[in-house]
Amino acid sequence: GNSGGPLLNLNGEVVGINRAIRTTGVSATGELLNSGIGFAVSVNIVRRVVPVLIEQGAYDYPYLGISAREELSLMEQEILGLSQTTGAYILSIEPGSPADEAGLKGGTRTTEITNFLAGGDLIIAVDQRPVRVFGDVLGYMLTQKSPGDSMEFTILRDGEEKEVTVILGKRP
Known about the structure:
This protein is of the alpha+beta class.
């Protein structure tokens, strides 16, 4: 469908709202060409955001204040000295952010990979839900949490499992 239209599954159920399509170039006649890759907003996010927009005219998204690696390669796992590749490795923490105030840590020690610092926390679960990649953290936060809510992070720090509670802020 077109941007703004429903994204349907095979059962005809709305699972998202189409937002955009990737454009990769121009034809010989000057027409835009798409790659067949579309982007949609999840219906779970729509269900949370739309009623608040209608009632209040604005929506505040939750905010952590971390930059994390989506996935770790085996080489990166080895460089970091981690026991696993699954999880969200925290590269950096925004000063003064909810993650900073809760004590989560980003990397601080240089490695042989440019802009890839060792010593950060590896998020392995959020609210007792396993985290395979950073998208698991973001997806859960955006569909289940609001500013002021807490999230219980299970992290690996220096080889030890630790629990850290973060009170989410409003996205700046």
